Amino acid sequence: MSTPFRSGAFRLSPSDYRALTDTARQNPEAYWQTQGTRLEWVNAPSSAQDTGNGWFADGTLNASVNCLDRHLETRGDQTALIWRAEEADHVVRLTYRDLHARVCQMANVLRAHGISRGDRVAIHLPTVLEGVIGMLACARLGAIHVVLFGGFSPEAIADRLADSGTALVITANVGRRGAKRIPFKTTMDSALSLRPETLFVRSVLVVSVTDEPVPMQAGRDEMLTPLLEKAEASCPAETMASTDPLFLLYTSGSTGKPKGIVHGTGGYLTWASYTHELVFDHQPGDVFWCTADIGWITGHSYVVYGPLSNGGTILLFEGMPSHPGPGRWWEVIQSHKVTTFYTSPTAIRALMREGNELPRQYDLTSLRVLGTVGEPISQEAWSWFDDVIGGGRCAFVDTWWQTESGGIMISPVPGAVKEKPASATLPLPGVHPVLLDDKGQVLDGATEGVLCLDGSWPGRALTIWNDDTLFQTTYLRPYPGHYFTGDGARRDEDGYYWITGRVDDVINVSGHRIGSAEIEDALAAEHAIVESAAIGIPHDLKGQGIVVYAVARDPSHPELEMLAVRAITAKVGRYAAPEKVYIVPDLPKTRSGKNVRRLMRKIACGETDGLGDLSTLADPEIVDVLIRIVQG
Ligand code: WTA
Fold this sequence. Notes:
29 strands, ligase, GMP Synthetase, Chain A, domain 3, binds 5'-O-[(S)-ethoxy(hydroxy)phosphoryl]adenosine, globular, eight-stranded mixed β-sheet, AMP-bd_C_sf, ATP-binding, 19 helices, alpha/beta
């Protein structure tokens, strides 16, 4: 099944795209050198390669200058950012000139608090202007931003503040989620009091989202708005090496410890700019709405760095899709004439449930490009989004990538690559995916295997903060000579990729990566539980849901399930709450003591026929016991 090309004036034709792909393959250095010129450098790089510790090694630049200053002459009065509050009548529009001034003021406040190049600044905010402004202000000073997702628990925040050695935190009194208030400041206070001996936080700057008062610790906490108002609206930008870190972003993998993925400056920004223009067919006048929170990589690359480096107009929406009613997003698209709408399959699944009539009440004809990211999308959700929201007129980009890749890797290019519903289609020019079998042999043609990437690309993460060995063992060693993505994929006879999901122990809940080991570590800290295994099973709305099998110290304890859920939400966050906790006498293990997750997954999914060869288990009888418990 394939859709015809959509009409419309897209930037690239199929032959342009083929020419780019050929040049990138034949002469990668020249190709990336040219792509590097999309940025404004202080010293242009003399080479365009990965030196092993980053791209464009001898180039120097500043990321905030690339997102702001260089647009001032050409588009200083163009809207850079539209911020739409919860209330429909509250909209803030900032031109490039306004945003530049606000970023300079923030940078001056940070500088007055002792922040300079290389320092880490944590940003823990709801969707308010200060998030984007704070990121760019850090970039201006050469400080490294560490954006923390609003859903993290105090424990998870404390771990990340300690690991990154953060010196200053920007947070909010509260966040607004519909009628609810999310206690940002008190969550941060709890995090800061957890293991103070491991922390270096000197200052906490607090944005007032509402006028609710919050406790302030004298000497450490200050309200941010009065400081910003007094600050100067100009601030020199630090000249950074291309390979200097621009930010750390924590993500989950197969160890319990969160990994601080480090992205560099020149390579990352080139990738964000290149992919934003190519994949979203960026054109003057576009209004680009990426619904991701800035706490995730999608928010970094496609709320902030991609569109702003390309001089685009971004929309930030403080509210939720479902409040005050489920038509909210469609109203936002109509009101602000959004042209490019980038969201997650999880959100689409939820909105689909509201039916077709609701979106049809809105004028969505401004839309040109629709995109999804974060998880595989079903054909049904793809077709609904394409038809009911896109009116069958829009280009549809199902974009595959990950925190570590910095930006989009496999995706259709509007007008140039024909979509197939639910396929991420083809690699972008300069990206070289390969599929491998279990033994690391490269598979050719139509096949299925482990998805790896060959060669480097400018957006590739530099390392893991404080742990380069983990970077090597996670990504480079599993399949020597190839970069291991953690995903599996199928390639069809047209060379199109269909991502099948993680092949490691990472669970994808509503597009959020959660390591099985993170959950198991949280449970290991709970005295009542001796041992546990967390697995992902299909979930209608979330993509995957978490199921936990736990062995209790005292199985007669009356509240084991609740204790387990509490231990997980306290250590990780509410977004990691399991669907189900099964208290079991033992876990199925091989004779060498390895948990057999495949079996636990099948049992949790009710697939109890054909469980395969059980003779390798230390205790095959445990299987029937688990089946009985799961089937209640
Ligand atoms: C999954 C998000 C299928 C994948 C940008 C990847 C996808 C992980 C897609 C990265 C897609 C992302 N189709 N699966 N289009 N995009 N994934 O680091 O498993 O939060 O490895 O980055 O999400 O998640 P991360």
